[in-house]
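Table S2 (text version). Query chain:
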Amino acid sequence: MATADLTVIALGRPDVSASPYIAEIQRRLAAQDRVRYRMHAMGTSLEGSTADVLAVVAELHAVPFELGVPRVYTVLKLDERRDKEQTLDDKVTSVERLLG
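Corresponding structure-token output:
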């Protein structure tokens, strides 16, 4: 099981707002069933097998190009554990337990 944090930045877009590109990326995520995902204010968290996460990231990286943007900068943080299965919710719960 891998968890990841993804930010796709469309450079050279005609408008300052990134929302249309982010919305399309979220639509593409909703249309697939390989990885779980959760949008947050600065990107999207992903969860699934490493192979599936990387495949989905490659598809999402291409979205701004498909929408006519000349340059795309993608930031991916990938965390993979092989000693136990750990979900995005597990990670948050672990910290919340320490805070509570």
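Notes on Table S2: The two ends are 27 Å apart (CA to CA). The first helix runs from residue 19 to 31.
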